[in-house]
């Protein structure tokens, strides 16, 4: 194989990367549901035991590791433009798992009325994913260390990084100094960091795969640089995303974060790795159409989350793809209509007594009393 800057168009590589990304996202969604089930099951018993001592939780943790590993390796085989938008599969799987475990009996007419937009979102996500995979970049470059350095010192990448740094500093100034806690500002910070993360993830994953195949890449300094940047950007990215979820509605954060993070990830791949350099205008337009359809599908699924109560989103950072996604904590077991103690949405009234609220009562001031009154004798009127 010739790795000296040559792009190798391989349908097999793209197929392997796509299947690994889909499998990884599905497995991560399943693992989160399993872990939530472990928490809910433990909260429904009187047994005082830590969640990490249950076999169910550890099963979910193992599934998470396998899913993240599959996502990580997928970047070594497929372009960023194909793998990054497939995070929609995770949202789709989480919502479907919520329907499977949702304990709600509705008439078909009411069910269609309440969940119609959700199923429309399913169709749009599946159709959009098909379009972007079918019309995505076909060329894939074997990322050896020397090729990565050539990309990094090219003027398009340097200009892109300069503009990104300036934009990031301006947004950070408004967020920290001006207290501009707008959702768009916070998620733009997340997306800009995510574009750096996906670039470094693809480089690290590609060099690791080539090393396993027999071409040593780990002794180059660029590998250490990319690895440190990957970890650092991912950590700060998770912090900003957590702040967004604290300040704004989680369903809105899920859809806007997916759109912005995917957009900047695809843009970074196009600038850094020149993934669309050999594509014609028709393929690019169809790819953009597929991405837009996926965006709309994710928006519909997450928008109806509050009404449908399909899943409870929480922040989970995919280290493999660098795009923080909001996965579900699991299905809604029972609606929480009471004010009793509950874990998530599971009402637990077994053996739980309501705790008395502290009441602070002030003792009214006592007026001056006579010596007779102080001894408990009534005052006698003397003539």
From TrEMBL:
The chain crosses the membrane at residues 15-35, 56-76, 82-102, 114-133, 153-175, 182-201, 221-240, 252-275, 281-301. Keywords: Membrane, Transmembrane, Transmembrane helix. GO terms for cellular component: membrane. Residues 362-383 are annotated as: Disordered. InterPro entries: EmrE-like, MFS_trans_sf, Mg_trans_NIPA. It is a multi-pass membrane protein. One of its GO terms (molecular function) is magnesium ion transmembrane transporter activity. It comes from the Eukaryota. SUPFAM superfamilies: MFS general substrate transporter, Multidrug resistance efflux transporter EmrE. It holds the Pfam family Mg_trans_NIPA. The keyword Magnesium does not apply. Its main location: membrane. It is found in: Membrane. Belongs to the NIPA family. PANTHER family: NIPA-LIKE PROTEIN 3, PTHR12570. This is NIPA like domain containing 3. It comes from Astatotilapia calliptera. The gene is NIPAL3.
